[in-house]
Please model this.
Amino acid sequence: MPATPELPKFSKASNTPQPLIPRKVQFDWADTPLEWIPGQPFASHFINEINLLLPAGEFWFCKLYNKALPYITDPKLRDDVQMFIRQEAMHARAHGAAIVEYLHAHGIETESNTAQEDKLFEVLLADEPFGVKLPKFAQKQWLVFRLGIVAAIEHMTCVLGNYVLKQDQWKGADPVLLDLLRWHGAEEVEHRCVAFDVYRHLGGRYPSRYYLASIAMPAIYGLWVHGAAHLMKQDERFAHKKPSVFRPWIWLEWHRQSRHGQLPSPLWLVKQELSFFSPWYNPVKEGSTEEALAYLNRSPAAARAARPS
Model:
């Protein structure tokens, strides 16, 4: 384990008291079954979609925050952002490896789904959206607009991180995939303040945060269900259901599965997102850094990567 750096001096802009630590991880997917929660194919596919959804978005985060760095005047917040970028890059690489070494190894087609995610971030949310070069006066506003979207998404990932750290209903779950989710979830809780702190530091205000979250949160859940449906179409047990984000079955089944503790309830998730809409929202209150660090200190993937080769 790397030595923990000294605590930084007080910062008005940063609400992350501890230094963030980028951790290398190493996962061995050789023995992970596609139905990684035994007897729960729907939940297994539904959560596996996270591997498809995250890499493009997290690499986009890294590009965006590198562009934000020159505007950050607070030294502690600048340090937070640099470590946030390194953590997010590792998340993207870990989930990207799971696509290749795990899902592709089981014969799952992912490219048609991930291509849609790439287009979203490389075209719609690019520095030049749809190839349109913005005038100089609008470039910072477009940057802050997108940082507001990330702040909303990071609240969602913190909620899911808390969920997976406390989840105890996945009986017999594959330990490698479970560690991937818990390691990632713990780091989301650990750095939960950074995106919101940057958004405020660069001039983001409550009214825009409100409407950005109103757009981002339904969009992310829609993409999640859309991708899960893509995985289920490739499973003969669900093919006859013709899974689709536009068909009621997958949403009703999600709710039914949540009642048995296999997935977070969609209604519970909506309730958890409401705090972000409050004018007094503070991400510090949304999770426990101590719980997150406790898991990160025992993560098998982090320990494996730390061993001498």
Summary: Residues 121 and 221 are 16 Å apart (CA to CA). The chain has one domain: 41-300. Residues 41-300 form one domain.
